[in-house]
């Protein structure tokens, strides 16, 4: 995954000259991964056709209008659509007719027991296979969706062969090609993948996939389909474990009067470890880490293999929202009857995605303790409200108070809790925070400048830092040492 900072300021134009000399790419499912795959291939000069079961989404993408929010995506999508490098098929037969490599980019959600739900993959591959039965020429199905090890060679092969009436061989190829992009840096990650991992069932598909990725500045790693699938889960489990490790250390930093960022910065300077994914916070969210960890645990369990480290990563993550609510209690005392502004509902900044956002469990914890919660997000307030589970949905306007502006959310609130590090919050001046009725801000991301809070006459509290000294009248722990918050002095 490319660091967010490396998002190109200039998005590369679609290559000049005739397109379509390499294999033509078809994309099934125009969500985060499908759109990213489509625009990246198109920007690197390949002819791309997309398809989605949702008609409205097909029309939107065909107009060059992105259905998802991602920095830089609108511009690049518009450009490749105008250049006719990316078009949208209105049915599966059209998609198959115009593509050689068919990338399956459909959802793989969690089933109620945590295992991966492969229904969408099965449906999408089944639909392709029915058309492939009569389609002339060579075609290959490439599984880009995240699927548990063994799925491509197992379920996908079985459905493909059964429904198409063709064997994998000279006229039909099959491969796994997992995706590693991160939301928030989707465009940069899709254009410059850290590595392209392919697992092919046959030599021709391997050759064609390598040809399709020729324009990408990325190493290609070729493995078996099952190993390729496992690389994706191993990567996500490891990244999630690093975040949970940082959160575990954050609790110890709070208790020892130290600053988790200073500690983890020095830890990450070890070249064996590296600095990324060592940031403590409200816990990991998003569409992938939690569901993929659960799926990995279920898949391993089905084979009689225990994964205690991956299990612990989930356990620590599930504990973190409760910890955030406890930190709020340290600032406010009993939360019953208090009004808390929960700022940021997307699972991280620079995305409108609220899937598995830590804002849900934090909201639940605050409500359980009797608080009324004001909700604000510059991008995803509506998406968050729409996806609230029914019991919580019924509490909107009573204990759950949606707010359209940051000022509305903060003014008169007893506490503000930063859940997403949106720039709007980082840049807010002292006047906004001064309008709080209560003592200050609890920053789960440590993205605000404490001096802004000081200028507002408010306290700054954060995950991974010792509790601040409260004004004596409000301080349940008056007299306690403010802890060692020295910034690390790094010299060469
Ligand atoms: N979002 C990420 O950051 C990310 C990163 C890496 C991997 N992945 C994996 O990629 C896959 C897709 O994730 P996403 O976030 O893009 O999902 P998404 O929900 O954003 O998009 C999926 C799209 O597929 C469409 N779809 C569903 N069934 C279809 C069918 N039969 N035919 C055509 N279209 C169909 C849906 O309408 C939707 O537009 C998942 O397996 C996910 O785990 C996601």
Describe the structure.
By secondary structure, this protein is α/β, with parallel strands linked by helices. It is built from 19 helices and 14 strands. The protein has two domains: 21-223, NAD(P)-binding Rossmann-like Domain (Rossmann fold); 313-474, Rossmann fold, CATH 3.40.50. It has helices spanning 32-43, 55-62, 73-82, 92-97, 119-132, 152-164, 186-191, 203-212, 225-256, 260-268, 289-302, 308-332, 359-368, 381-386, 390-393, 406-410, 423-427, 430-434, 450-455, and strands at residues 25-28, 48-51, 86-88, 101-104, 139-143, 172-176, 196-200, 220-223, 339-343, 372-376, 400-402, 415-418, 440-443, 459-462. An eight-stranded mixed sheet has the order 3-2-1-4-5-6-7-8, sandwiched between helices. Helix 8 links the parallel strand 7 (196-200) and strand 8 (220-223). Residues 1-7 and 476-485 have low confidence and may be disordered. Residues 28-34, 51-54, 57, 105-108, 120, 123-124, 127, 145-146, 179, 181, 183, 287-288 line the site of nicotinamide-adenine-dinucleotide (NAD).
């Amino acid at each position: 995954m490319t660091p967010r900072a490396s998002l190109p300021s200039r998005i590369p134009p679609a290559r000049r000259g005739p397109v379509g000399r390499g294999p033509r790419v078809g994309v099934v499912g125009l969500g985060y991964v499908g759109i990213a795959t489509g625009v990246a291939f198109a920007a690197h000069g390949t002819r791309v056709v997309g398809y989605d079961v949702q008609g409205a989404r097909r029309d939107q993408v065909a107009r060059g209008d992105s259905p998802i929010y991602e920095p830089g995506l609108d511009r690049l999508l518009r450009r490749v659509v105008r250049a006719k490098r990316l078009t949208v098929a209105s049915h599966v037969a059209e998609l198959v007719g115009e593509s050689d490599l068919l990338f399956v980019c459909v959802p793989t959600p969690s089933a109620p027991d945590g295992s991966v739900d492969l229904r969408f993959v099965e449906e999408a591959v089944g639909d392709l296979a029915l058309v492939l039965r009569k389609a002339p020429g060579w075609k290959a199905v490439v599984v880009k969706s995240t699927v548990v090890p063994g799925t491509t060679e197992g379920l996908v092969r079985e459905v493909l062969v059964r429904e198409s009436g063709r064997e994998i061989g000279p006229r039909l190829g099959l491969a796994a090609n997992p995706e590693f992009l991160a939301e928030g840096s989707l465009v940069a990650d899709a254009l410059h993948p850290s590595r392209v991992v392919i697992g092919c069932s046959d030599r021709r598909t391997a050759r064609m996939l390598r040809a399709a990725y020729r324009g990408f500045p990325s190493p290609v790693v070729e493995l078996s389909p099952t190993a390729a699938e496992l690389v994706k889960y191993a990567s996500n489990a490891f990244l999630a474990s690093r975040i949970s490790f940082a959160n575990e250390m954050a609790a110890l930093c709070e208790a020892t009067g130290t600053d988790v960022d200073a500690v983890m910065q020095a830890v990450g300077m070890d070249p064996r470890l590296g600095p990324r994914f060592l940031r403590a916070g409200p816990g990991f969210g998003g569409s992938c880490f939690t569901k993929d960890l659960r799926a990995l645990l279920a898949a391993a369990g089905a084979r009689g293999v225990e994964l205690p480290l991956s299990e612990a990563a989930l356990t620590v993550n599930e504990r973190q929202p409760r910890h955030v609510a406890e930190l709020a209690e340290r600032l406010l005392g009993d939360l019953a009857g208090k009004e808390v502004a929960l700022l940021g509902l997307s699972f991280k900044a620079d995305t409108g995605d609220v899937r598995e956002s830590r804002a849900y469990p934090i909201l639940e914890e605050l409500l359980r303790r009797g608080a009324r919660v004001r909700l604000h997000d510059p991008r995803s307030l509506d998406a968050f409200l729409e996806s609230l589970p029914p019991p919580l949905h019924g509490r909107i306007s009573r204990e759950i108070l949606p707010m359209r502006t940051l000022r509305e959310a903060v003014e008169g609130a007893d506490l503000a809790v930063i859940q997403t590090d949106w720039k709007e919050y980082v840049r807010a001046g002292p006047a906004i925070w001064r309008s709080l009725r209560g003592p200050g801000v609890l920053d789960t991301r440590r993205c605000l400048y404490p001096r802004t809070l000081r200028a507002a006459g408010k306290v700054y509290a954060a995950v991974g830092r010792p509790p601040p000294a409260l004004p004596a009248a409000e301080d349940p722990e008056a007299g306690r040492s403010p802890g060692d918050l020295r910034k690390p002095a790094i010299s060469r």
